[in-house]
Amino acid sequence: MENISISGDDRIEKKLKFLEETFIKLGAVETEIISQGDDSQRKVFLKGDRYYKAGTLKFPDFEEIYLVISCTDEEKYAHLGIMDDVDAFAYNLTDYELEEKVRFAFGID
Amino acid sequence: MRVSFDLDEVLFVSPDNYEVEPELRFPLNRMFPERLRKGTVFLINELQRRGFEVWVYTSSFRSEVYINALFRQYNIKFDSIVNGYRHKKEVQGNRSDTLPQKMPTHYRISLHIDDEEAIIQNARTWGFHVLQVLEPDPDWTTKVLNEAERIKKMEEIQASGKH
Fold first, then answer.
1. What is the ipTM of this complex?
2. What pTM, to 2 d.p., does this model score?
3. Fewer beta carbons within 10 Å, N or C terminal of chain A?
4. Is the model's pLDDT at A37 over the cut of 70?
5. Do B70 and B34 form a contact (C-beta atoms < 8 A)?
6. Within a domain: residue A1?
7. Cβ of A62 and B27 within 8 Å?
């Protein structure tokens, strides 16, 4: 699987923004860190002792682009963009479903 | 009372040789390729329902975030996770003598489940309880539950004898 840049795709960018807004709504704070991974550069958020970012995933044998929430508990890895993908899902989920995904990633039941 | 599980060859097994839990949906099955031994979900939930704390104690260097994320897809939440990094930092530390690759007593774990013969040997030498899980065994969940209950009873008797 590969992370891809989708900055030109407004629909997906809108969903990524929504995820990031939901991070804050659910108690995360925006950090100064801009993740330097092979994904398009994205803001990193801190909740508790964990760093989160939203991004996209594409699999070589599938057309569809997936949204992904990634996480690490090490600040140095957040800077480097070395984060574990904790959940991935279709980009056309509703806002309610996306918020549920963030809750799940944050461990909020 | 705390019970811990090794991952590779204990909870993570090959579907070629073992019965396994259902595969996660795409794309999660690409992100988390490990397959769980059949009975894992029931066993961990049942141990927690009975009041046991359930930990992972693995020598692997998979991150705590990764392990948590994988098992949460099966609705499993571990009480704590000790991976190779944590063991190295908290158990081995700066000691000049090399300690065993797992020391459940350091974390007050009363029963550890593992497949490796070396861990069984270390249990005798270092005085901790291990249940070995090896081949495919349809009764493995019952054996773990029975052993956990046995150790719990033993600890209760020992504790009451001290008073």
1. 0.85
2. 0.90
3. C
4. no
5. yes
6. no
7. yes
